[in-house]
UniProtKB/TrEMBL annotation:
InterPro entries: Restrct_endonuc-II-like, Restrct_endonuc_IV_Mrr, tRNA_endonuc-like_dom_sf. GO terms for molecular function: DNA binding; endonuclease activity. Residues 4-112 form the Restriction endonuclease type IV Mrr domain. It comes from the Bacteria. This is Restriction endonuclease type IV Mrr domain-containing protein.
Length: 242
């Protein structure tokens, strides 16, 4: 068996060993095209199906940023819950940068095998916290302060309750993260449909799944702001203020 194919099979075997379904050389249809994926991992958590795409690179040099960017675009096109880029010889600094603020993890099979469940949980929570912080920063960058303590928020298209509601969801997620880090369960990860009660998780894994769903909705809503400068057209009585 060729080294690159053996590496794929080893990766799939690892995910199966932790109780997940994994297949190699899978063709997956995306929005724009069909993609050949090295390993596809599937599992159910909290009554929902999840899909991870795994890219395996068995080569004698570090992975470049362009490789990670190409894989990230495939993950987005397919709509996978997570992308995992595996390489045993490391990644260039640009490759790590390309995975930030995205649902792509760059690591090695050796690191996965060495990681304990607690370490895996810690990594996932830290990544979630980074996403929450990034969303808060984006809202802050799109807020203009006026008068004495007043603010005008750029509105989020299609989000019931506007920007203040988005901030409420983010604050709830931040509180839930603090709770699970302290081992305090159940922990809230979102609002119920009536917006008057919380969605809570009784376990760490359930919290991560629920929090990811909430965070993905927020990121999708805020995506229209990315890379665009904004200034309010005018200050009027109808503006959103605090």
């Amino acid at each position: 068996m060729e080294p690159w194919r053996e590496y794929q099979e080893e990766a799939a075997a690892y995910f199966r060993s932790v109780g997940l379904d994994a297949g190699t050389d899978v063709s997956v249809q995306g929005v724009r095209a069909k993609h050949d994926i090295d390993v596809v991992v599937q599992f159910d958590r909290a009554g929902m199906g999840h899909t991870w795409l795994v890219e395996c690179k068995k080569r004698g040099r570090r992975v470049e940023m362009t490789d990670v960017l190409a894989f990230r675009s495939i993950v987005q096109d397919v709509g996978a819950d997570r992308g995992i880029f595996l390489a045993e010889n490391g990644f260039q600094s640009g490759a790590y940068n390309a995975s930030e603020f995205a649902n792509v993890t760059v690591t090695s099979l050796a690191e996965l095998r060495a990681a304990s469940p607690d370490e895996i949980f810690t990594v996932e929570v830290e990544h979630l916290q980074t996403r929450v912080d990034h969303a808060f920063d984006l809202i802050k960058a799109n807020t203009r302060h006026i008068g004495r303590g007043g603010s005008i928020f750029r509105q989020v298209p299609g989000w019931k309750g506007g920007t203040t509601s988005v901030m409420g969801h983010l604050s709830l997620l931040a509180s839930g993260i603090r709770s699970v880090r302290r081992g305090m369960l159940p922990a809230a990860y979102g609002f119920a449909n009536d917006a008057n009660s919380f969605l809570t998780a009784a376990s760490r894994s359930e919290f991560l799944v629920g929090a990811h769903v909430t965070m993905q909705k927020i990121e999708n809503a805020l995506a229209v702001w990315e890379g665009e400068d904004w200034e309010p057209q005018s200050v009027n009585r109808g503006a959103s203020r605090t």
